Every structure is written in structure tokens, then in C-alpha cells.
Amino acid sequence: MPPTETSRDRVxxxxxxxxxxxxxxxxxxxxxxPEYLTAHxxxxxxxxxxxxxxxxxxxxxxxxxxxxxxxxxxxxxLLREHGTRTLAVPGDLPAGWLAELADAxxxxxxxxxxxxxALSAGQLDTVDSTLTGCALAIAETGTIVLDAxxxxxxxxxxxxxxxxxxxxxxxxxxxxVPRALPLLDPARPLTWISGPxxxxxxxxDRVEGVHGPRRLEVVLVVGAA
Length: 225
Known about the structure:
By secondary structure, the protein is α/β, with parallel strands linked by helices. The chain has a single domain, classed as Rossmann fold, CATH 3.40.50. It contains five helices and twelve strands. It has helices spanning 7-21, 45-58, 71-82, 121-124, 177-180, and strands at residues 62-66, 86-90, 105-109, 129-132, 136-138, 143-146, 163-169, 173-174, 191-193, 198-199, 207-208, 215-221.
């Protein structure tokens, strides 16, 4: 080795020699990408609803079903049975949902309204229940996704109150996470809910209501309005 040649020079020389031998050789074709299933459930809406209800129940959520016409009456009954005296709702909640509610004070979170219209964390900590819709639900995982879109309100609305009553339409149920992700905007504040808030961090004892509502009730709405 000449006195001025270093180990680096020798390595680079070998690389240049190897590349020179490959000159004019066409590149290897890329291996075909395997076709992966994006869901393991049939696209039958009834099956998706059954699987979603089963998985939600496994996470200790309470699941109800009704038609659009039955929804106002069912919501009023569930809130009455829970003992709800104060109810927090997003400003754009469909008015018809509360048509039969007669024995609870409704606090509207008008975050986009005039100054002071948004409910504070302190106010939300005193309400008995909150009622919202959702962005979509995932059958395979028993998950409800909120994105602060229509009928959902701000994230704080579903994290502070102890009881969350969530309405899910049948056409919002997706089979799997891969089917759901393309429908969501990653720039929005996404909240993924699989049952009531719970943790087992301390001595493996399950404690509910630590990071969100202690009780989650889901109403699956089936049928045309």
C-alpha cells in the first residue's frame, strides 16, 4: 500500500470497482407487495353492529339499540334512570335528540359562540352526564372515535363528566382500523374510546374513571330516519 493510501481509500476503491462491474446491468425488479386483508368481517351492517356491541360490552360499556324515531325517548329514559339533573351537550347537537327530555338542565358548550359560551372544566366537573355523537366506530376493536366534528364538541366535553352517553349511527360503523383510518383527518383532535376510562397501574387493581368517564353508554341507531 502506498504510504499516502489509507484504509478509507482502499474501501472506496473497492466500491468503485464493484460499481463499475455492474455498469449497464438493469436493476433487479422490485418484489411484488403482498396483498393484505384490511378487515376480517363481512360487510353486512347487521354483523358489524353485532360485533361492535359485543366488543363494547367486553370493555364494560352499556349498549342499547333503537330506531331513529325511538332515539329521543330512549335518551330521555337513560338519562332519567342515571339520575341526570344536569346534562352537557355540544352546541350543534341535533335538537330532536332532546325532544323528550323534561327533567334535566341542559348546559350547551357553545365554544364557537360569543365569549364565555364555552363550559369550563370546573362546570363540566359538576354535571351528571354528557351526550354526544361520534365520528365513527370500529367493530373489530369495539372502539368509538371522536374528532370534535358534528354533534361531538370539544374533547374536554367527553373527558371530564363521569357519564358519557354516545350515539352511533349504523352507517358510521367500520369493520376495522385499516378501514377507519382513511376516513379520519389526522390534523383533527382524535379521541379513541374503548369502554369506560380505566387503569390497572397501581397493584394491578382496576380503577375506573381516572382518565375520563367512569360510565360509558352507547346507543346504536339502526334504520332510516
